[in-house]
Design brief:
alpha/beta, seven-stranded parallel beta sheet, three-stranded antiparallel beta sheet, binds 2-amino-2-deoxy-6-O-phosphono-alpha-D-glucopyranose
């Protein structure tokens, strides 16, 4: 793993956006893997800036989301589809039709069938060229919570109490409003991305970051599977890196 410790969110966003720009320059029709949460927001803003000044275009790209809540009504503002349209697509020149998200509302399909169809659609598109990741305070990536298998495919999963509490800030701090289920790319799916960049900021992530980088590769810390990936950069601020030996 390539570990990069930087002083600010702005520097982290600049460095990750440099990596994404290099991928898209080499392959204008690249498939980007996009994440929700606070960690990638500055990257989406930086991509928007570079597009505005003409340094970059995502016009030929496609984007694939990591995960989605199950149990929110279609079009709910905190669904990951709406979040990505708002925070990512609207800031860039990506065609909104080129954003693909796991779809729990797929007509005529069970949730398991919809999950399998999403997994297959990523493969059919040629796979993800650059995957943006955050990490949960319990070490989850996408919504792969501790205790799953390290080679899972896109599936329906449950959310831990800790993850629901962490995410309740998007639901007016009302835990009851936070879904208990999700549809998420599996760890096996994520590991097929050609290149991965993960952002972690703040002391709340320090324990998970230590387990991801220095711990054993174990379902107890799902992000630790990234130790097996050949091209992953972990971008940390000083607080997130504070427990590293
Ligand atoms: C959610 C998402 C993850 C994200 C994590 C961390 O649970 N499903 O993809 O990485 O939160 O979010 P944040 O970046 O807001 O800390």
């Amino acid at each position: 793993m390539n570990i990069v410790v930087l002083d600010s969110e702005t520097e982290i966003a600049t460095r990750m956006t440099d990596e994404i720009q290099a991928v898209v320059t080499r392959k204008p029709e690249a498939n980007l893997g996009v994440a929700t949460g606070s960690s990638p927001l500055a990257v989406y803003r930086e991509l928007g800036k570079r597009i505005q000044v003409g340094d970059l275009t995502l016009a030929k790209c496609q984007a694939f989301a990591l995960d989605e809540y199950v149990g929110l009504p279609l079009g709910h503002p905190e669904s990951y589809r709406q979040t990505l349209l708002r925070e990512f697509v609207s800031r860039t020149d990506l065609n909104p039709d080129s954003l693909f998200t796991p779809n729990p509302h797929l007509e005529g399909k069970t949730l398991d069938e919809a999950a399998a169809a999403y997994d297959a659609s990523i493969k059919a598109a040629g796979g993800v060229d650059y995957q943006i990741l955050g990490i949960g305070s319990d070490g989850h990536i996408a919504f792969n919570e501790p205790g799953g298998t390290l080679d899972s495919r896109t599936h329906i999963g449950g959310l831990t109490e800790q993850t629901r509490r962490d995410n309740s800030r998007f639901f007016e701090n009302n835990l009851d409003e936070v879904p208990t289920q999700c549809m998420t790319q599996g760890l096996g799916t994520i590991m097929e991305a050609a290149q991965i960049g993960l952002i972690a900021m703040g002391s709340g992530k320090a324990q998970a970051v230590k387990a991801m980088i220095e711990g054993p590769i174990s379902p107890d810390c799902p992000a630790s599977v990234l130790q097996n990936h050949p091209q992953v950069t972990v971008f940390l601020d000083r607080d997130a890196a504070s427990l590293l030996g």
